[in-house]
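Structure tokens please, single chain.
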Amino acid sequence: MRLIDVTTKQVAEFLGKPPPYAILSHTWGDDEVTLQELADPAARQKQGFAKISQFCATVSLRLPNIKYVWVDTCCIDKSSSAELTEAINSMFRWYREAVRCFAYLQDVSLQGKCEAGPEFESCRWFSRGWTLQELLAPRDLEFFDRDWKLIGEKQSLCSRISKATGIQESALKTDAFHEYSAACRMSWASQRQTTRTEDMAYCLLGIFDINMPMLYGEGEKAFLRLQEEILKSFDDQSLLAWDAESVPASEQVSTLAKQPSCFRGGAELMCRPSSSEPLVITNKGIRLRLPVLSEPTSDFTIGLLSCSTYGDVASLVGIRLERSRDGSEVYHRARAPLYLNSMMPIHIHGMFSSATTLTLAPKTALGNPKRNVSECWLDCSRQGCTVLVAYPKAQWVHNGKTGTSTWTLPSTSEDVFESILAVTRKKTGKRYAIRVKLQPTDGLGKVLVQQLEEDIDVQILALLNDAVQKSVTSDSMPGQSKACDVVARLVPTLLRGRWSTSLELQCM
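Here you go.
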């Protein structure tokens, strides 16, 4: 690592652990000083040298014990591809380990005021790709205007920085930004630019804790390589949750995004650990197992990803797919927006054991016991379970005060009424799929409870609230009981580790 002596302006090289140093974050101009030029007296006439001198003076004033600084323009030998690769892969760590980072905003001026005006949010520094890691990596970051007057610290400017960048304040205030989903972190770079196409990928290496070689000249392939490395290293399917509708009609839609701008809507996405077998990247594309849904309003197949929106863990996020024309199990991303379904599950207290027959009494049982059953109630609140969701959803009502559940029977000629429930044990957290069959008889109703499967993934919510709609409205399967048959058969497709459909997403 090369460092500049703040007094002599000479470069010193350290092979082991370097001494404490300050680091500069800035946007490049047309008159910067390179490593080879720094020792040349003629370079002292350049604006870039004046920037370095003022930076050293400011460090000496604010950090008198710091004797060295690092500046990217002249501390890297860019004529050496090996050194450039090492520097880019190390840069996030260098900013992280600096005693303090000084962000120089050349297009902002306090002009004697106590705080910067709106030009702070619109300054060029917030629009460049490389400055994203320079914002997130340092533990101590201060902003200076073009005259090297202190604008403020990152912590005190957190709200304004969040407004300018779209980065959540919680990610700016702590070091835990790596906990945010891949799609969310990509969204932070979605409106930034770099001079070279490849740098749009290389500037994100530290954000995702990825190392890879630099291949200038590969163009957009650099961003594809970055995404592949992320998928190999982390269990985060939100990286597939980008807006394919934004792909121009003249371009082919790929499984992976071509640039960070495709993730502009990713700030609200959070990832969940996937329960399926590991994703595999092949020379033909990406092979992974996903629960799939049929979309009644289109010919698309929806592959549900292991992610949701922040604040709604029950929400569903999926990618719309088109099956290969040869009829194989190969799917392609469709030129269509993401599938987003925000649903808040109804909560019904109850516990049903396998192969158990329960009796439901009419709510007006003290009245005429001979009349037909129209509403039944079931008090299972003492069993320590919660029903996450029920199908048909509209027929279940929960009374929070009494802990009872009311089932309003539909007006139909059928003699048997059925429902599918997803319940969870509070102690163990295990989820079960339950099938309930009600047969009204002489004013009383007997319900047969059948446990279909256990250990259901949260995606069961999609099955019960969305996928069955096609079955319910289908002329070939009329009637509620037959619809429940369809649901019962589909339940195993959503079990952890037992996805029934293996998708091969082609991205080449």
